[in-house]
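User: I'm curious whether this sequence folds into something compact or stays loose and floppy. Could you predict its structure so I can see for myself?
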Amino acid sequence: MKKSVNNFQVSGIVSKDAEIREFTNHSVARFPLGVSRQDKNSEDTSWVSALIGIEVWRKNDNTQSFDLLTKGNLITAEGYFSPQEWTDNDGVKHHKLVMVANKIYETPDREETPEPVPDKGKKKGKK
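Assistant: Here's the prediction. I'll summarize afterward.
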């Protein structure tokens, strides 16, 4: 059987300021990342959006990257998906998939590429 690699990269907008928890040696930042894509259906175009739960773990002396995790920032996260399971106080089992980011960084805004301007100059082959 072939092995698959659980490694992903996603860019999106931080939807809410990260919730940061500090432990003895490490800290974790948890936040939702808003992602969207354009969906074309015949002549109609719409945007389909979703939120991805992201976790970022760092040693306590290396948490400066958490400064990026404020609402509205456009970031890229690289990491892997981790299934999480728990049972609530009523005995109900829950499951969710969280992306654990090994690397986060600012995503530069994409600039639109201008349309090429047709050349109205000299015709080729004539002098």
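Summary: Strands lie at 8-14, 19-22, 26-41, 44-59, 74-87, 93-106. Residues 9 and 78 are 4 Å apart (CA to CA).
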